[in-house]
């Protein structure tokens, strides 16, 4: 959704109705996660994707239908044993989509939501997908304000509280309530879609490998910062557009920079005077991934220094070093691919093995 919001915001500002399809539930080996979206706008322009091509043709027609009727629809697509080439997911999964018309009258908060996402201001959009409340009704919830309604005051109050909790985690998913927000009932199903700021990638060491890692990090959706204490290397012209470049001693910069459970830290300095104080700081704070470049000998020396600095085995176990998966990488770009592959594998619990050597679902759901 984040990627297509600029187009949607433009259509909305122009007063052009559009049909918006959003994945609200998946099962088995579905190719897209909840929140993935596709929209059909003026002139039958299409943006986004909900299945990577499996059902987009059918969704195109659904989006046109809901714009014409003004009524939202909930549709499920799955694999067909009778005809694998019929409309369905030949990967064997199943997705449920909410397809709704969007206009200023039906969703008066949409413009403000699009502006907030563009500005990096966290917001959660709650949408009714099933039950006695109006399907497609929306409630936009920020940290300090609310806009819209799901139909009843009690439901709005309960959903607002949950939406702010999901927003703090950057989480997206379904919640169930009674018609007036009763917590132990499931008459109304609401989809909470959180738009938290992009996660951070902090790259330390302004070398050629850092430029390649920064480029692939931005491609994966991270907000990337490159930091190095040497001003001759830490210059914006050496890095992709949009990458922040900071001249500072790495451990000092990290000490003053907030991190969370989504933050990725890549230490590419492979110089003890930089990376040991930096890793002492990094391994004591929240982060999704902490990787350090260096040879086996550098790694062994680094681990000894870190133990001498007082780090315990549990903290040291968080360190991915030498950084990256074993792809036989040589060039900076190839090394960046191996680092990105390790980050993705760690995030989703992947083995890093070739899919030809594995069995079972390709996209297992999180437990």
From TrEMBL:
<dbReference type="InterPro" id="IPR052698">
    <property type="entry name" value="MoCofactor_Util/Proc"/>
</dbReference>
<protein>
    <submittedName>
        <fullName>Xanthine dehydrogenase accessory factor</fullName>
    </submittedName>
</protein>
<dbReference type="InterPro" id="IPR003777">
    <property type="entry name" value="XdhC_CoxI"/>
</dbReference>
<dbReference type="Pfam" id="PF02625">
    <property type="entry name" value="XdhC_CoxI"/>
</dbReference>
<feature type="domain" description="XdhC Rossmann">
    <location>
        <begin position="201"/>
        <end position="343"/>
    </location>
</feature>
<feature type="domain" description="XdhC- CoxI">
    <location>
        <begin position="117"/>
        <end position="178"/>
    </location>
</feature>
<feature type="domain" description="XdhC- CoxI">
    <location>
        <begin position="11"/>
        <end position="78"/>
    </location>
</feature>
<dbReference type="InterPro" id="IPR027051">
    <property type="entry name" value="XdhC_Rossmann_dom"/>
</dbReference>
<dbReference type="Pfam" id="PF13478">
    <property type="entry name" value="XdhC_C"/>
</dbReference>
């Amino acid at each position: 959704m984040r990627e297509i919001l600029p187009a949607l915001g433009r259509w909305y500002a122009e007063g052009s109705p559009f049909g918006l399809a959003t994945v609200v539930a998946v099962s088995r080996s579905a190719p897209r996660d909840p929140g993935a979206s596709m929209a059909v706008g003026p002139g039958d322009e299409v943006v986004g994707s909900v299945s990577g091509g499996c059902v987009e043709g059918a969704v195109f027609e659904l989006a046109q239908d809901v714009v014409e009727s003004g009524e939202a629809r909930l549709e499920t697509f799955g694999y067909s044993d009778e005809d694998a080439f019929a409309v369905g997911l030949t990967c064997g999964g199943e997705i449920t989509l909410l397809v709704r018309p969007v206009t200023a009258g039906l969703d008066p908060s949409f413009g403000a939501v699009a502006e907030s996402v563009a500005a990096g201001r966290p917001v959660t959009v709650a949408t009714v997908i099933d039950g006695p409340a109006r399907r497609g009704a929306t409630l936009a919830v920020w940290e300090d304000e609310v806009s819209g309604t799901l139909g009843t005051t009690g439901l709005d109050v309960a959903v607002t509280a949950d939406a702010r909790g999901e927003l703090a985690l950057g989480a997206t998913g379904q919640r169930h309530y009674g018609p007036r927000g009763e917590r132990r009932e499931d008459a109304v199903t609401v989809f909470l879609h959180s738009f938290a700021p992009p996660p951070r990638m902090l790259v330390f060491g302004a070398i050629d490998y850092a430029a390649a890692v920064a480029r692939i990090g931005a491609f994966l959706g991270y907000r990337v910062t490159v930091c190095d204490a040497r001003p001759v290397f830490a210059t914006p012209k050496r890095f992709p557009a949009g990458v922040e470049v900071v001249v500072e001693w790495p451990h000092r910069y990290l000490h003053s920079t907030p991190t969370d459970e989504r933050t990725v830290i890549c230490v590419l300095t492979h110089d003890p005077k930089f990376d040991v104080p930096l890793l002492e700081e990094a391994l004591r704070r929240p982060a999704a991934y902490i990787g350090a470049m260096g040879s086996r000998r550098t790694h062994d020396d680094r681990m000894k220094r870190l133990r001498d600095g007082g780090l315990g085995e549990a903290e040291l176990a968080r360190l991915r070093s030498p950084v990256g998966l074993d792809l036989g990488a040589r060039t900076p770009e190839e090394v960046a691919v191996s680092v990105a592959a390790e980050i993705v594998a760690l995030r989703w619990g992947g083995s890093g093995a070739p899919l030809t050597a594995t069995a079972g679902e390709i996209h297992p759901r999180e437990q």
